User: Fold Large ribosomal subunit protein mL46 from Zapornia atra.
Amino acid sequence: TAAAPRPWRLFGAMCLLRLPRISQPLVKEEEEMAALMGQIELEKSHYSDHEVRQLEEEEQLRRRKESMHDDDEAVGKTVIMAQDLEDKWEQKLLQFKAAPRITDADKNNNRTSLDRRLDSNLMLLVKQRIGNQELWLLPQVEWQPGETLRSTAERAMATFLGDHVQAKILGNAPYGIYKYKFPRAIRTEDNVGAKVFFFKAFLQSSDLSQAEPKDYLWVTKDELGDYLKPEYLKKVNRFLLD
Assistant:
């Protein structure tokens, strides 16, 4: 028998997030609390093994100066003091240079790059043709008989990024739903509108050079309003945490 007609067309969409790669800068209150906790920890802390060794060596040097001879060390033996180690570590520290928090992609406002806004979540948007419009959306495809909604969302991600992209999908239930009706000119009893079910995944691949779609963006939550329609954005913001 023929399948019963469905008045709503079903779609699965994937909210693919690149998690932060660095911590966010501390605000003033957090800096003050961190300094306070560091001071308390220092005052209550015990000597480390290195500090104990340094104190012992200082005591040995004091005794040698008082006795005016060296009877603890064999002649010609090379001794590495704790202070020598500290000097060596200090030289290594001077050679170390931390990577910048602001990348070239930030300076150029390149929203197609994953190497931007390293302290924030980035979400993938793709440009899709809906009717006679081209809209920025989360990657989505229409549900096919025999699929679960999660597998539909997985297929949406694979359609734009390829099967080799690694992502950790969170759960089997959708995080949100967006429902809209078609224009009256094309609306029928058997074709009322569409329901889009949103799933969420964390990007785990580090190289997407061979998988990036043609029209795509990696944007923060604050930047979504520049691309998504208000009603669509409202549904996405309900499940998207920054």
Summary: The longest strand covers residues 8-18. The chain has a mean pLDDT of 87.
